Amino acid sequence: LTILGIESSCDDTGAAIVRGTAGNARVMSNIVMGQAELHAAFGGVVPEIAARAHAEKVDLAVKQALSEAMVSLSEVDAIAVTAGPGLIGGVLSGVMCAKGIAAALGKPLIGVNHLAGHALTPRLTDGLTYPYLMLLVSGGHCQFLIVRGPDEFTRVGGTIDDAPGEAFDKVARLLALPQPGGPSVEARARDGDPKRFRFPRPLLDREGCDMSYSGLKTAVLRARDEVMTDNTLTAQDQADLCAGFQEAVTAVLAEKTRRALRVYMDLNPGQPMIAVAGGVAANQAIRAALTTVAEEAGAGFTAPPLKLCTDNGAMIAYAGLERFALGETDDMTLQARPRWPLDKKSAPMIGSGK
Ligand code: ATP
Ligand code: FE
Questions:
Q1: What residue's CA is closest to ligand 1, atom 7?
Q2: Which of 134, 186, 141, 135 has the alpha carbon at shortest distance from 159?
């Protein structure tokens, strides 16, 4: 199967060609056009600007994905597109582009849940077999999922407020570091002393796999204000705050993963496998901590290459491939959805009234 995937749910326009079968597919091309510079002045993603940029770039991204893969549109078996969740204007840009191509060529259209794209990435990168435990940790989400199939997800806990990616972004803003905050906070943390500031580890004292990250950024704000003089932070203060914050997030994720793995192992006999995905999975400190958790529990561990952690079209093409292989397609009534939880029955709302 050769699938074109289109992603436009946040601030990256992605288009990619993925070829193969379920559990054995290859990325032929993966074009990601970021918008960081468009949003930089605003300190965050501006939905209207994002939507317009997606509309302007998506055709070019598709063209480049095809030419880099040396695949013509006529060779594509189906067009997969993120149908949600995400910023609705951006999602609409992608869905409209995909519908246009599907209609013009008479090819099947497949609406993909963006989160399923992240959650199925280890099937694409490592050919992981079902079931596995997934920690999906990104800009808008943080949850443990038992993944049993392309459309079968059981949530075993997650954040009750902010996502860690959001916390990284907010902390970067507090410390005058560039957006997206994840990579810039991680880079500064390398020069910092993680022990200087002792930030809270929310909900560690409580049972279960739920997490909370909104208090953490408030703690960083308070610590910053204490060390700031004349409205300026020294480079060392900045680095220490980053290191302390990153260590707190890492400690919470590691301990909660340990617990989720226990839940998973109770339910699923056999060799346990844990995978991480989403933008925050690009963080080296977090990857290292999770590797240790898996080792200690005798579980396997996998994390996608960095470019497949953050938003991209390849994961959408691949998730579409899995649905297509099961004979699931959508029609021109496919709708863009701002919200679309994974653990509910995740087939898109289509004309058939599913
Ligand atoms: P969602 O997938 O929940 O809809 P999203 O698509 O915006 O949200 P992703 O693109 O998966 O999220 O991830 C982006 C987030 O990942 C941002 O918040 C960013 O700061 C964070 N991130 C990226 N790289 C790193 C890193 N090295 N360390 C920590 N966080 C990171
Ligand atoms: Fe994402």
A1: 139
A2: 141
DSSP string, 108-137: -EEEEEHHHHHHHHHHHHH-PPSPEEEEEE
pTM score, whole prediction: 0.93
**Alpha carbon distances (Å) from 40 to 139, 185, 199, 226:** 16, 16, 28, 27
Residue 2, phi then psi, degrees to nearest 5: -120, 120
Interface pTM, i.e. ipTM = 0.98
Rounded Cα distance, 85 and 336, in Å: 8
Cα 77 to middle of ligand 1, angstroms: 30
Strand ranges across the sheet with 132-137: 152-158, 142-149, 132-137, 273-277, 300-302
Residue 215 one-letter amino acid: G
Catalogue the E-assigned strands of 293-338.
Answer: 300-302
End-to-end CA distance of the chain: 26
CA 180 to ligand 1: nearest atom? 20
Contacts of 288 by beta carbon, 8 Å cutoff, 6+ apart: none
With b for 16 or more beta-carbon neighbours within 10 A and e for fewer, the 123-149 pattern comes to: bbbbebebbbbbbbbbbbbbbbbbbee
Q: Separation of 195 CA from ligand 1 center, angstroms?
A: 25
Ligand 1 centroid to 180 CA: how many Å? 8
CA-CA distance, 108 to 4, in Å (whole number)?
A: 11
Mean pLDDT by 10 residues, the chain (354 residues): 97 96 98 90 85 93 98 98 96 97 97 97 98 96 96 94 97 94 98 97 91 95 95 95 98 97 94 96 98 97 96 98 97 96 55 29
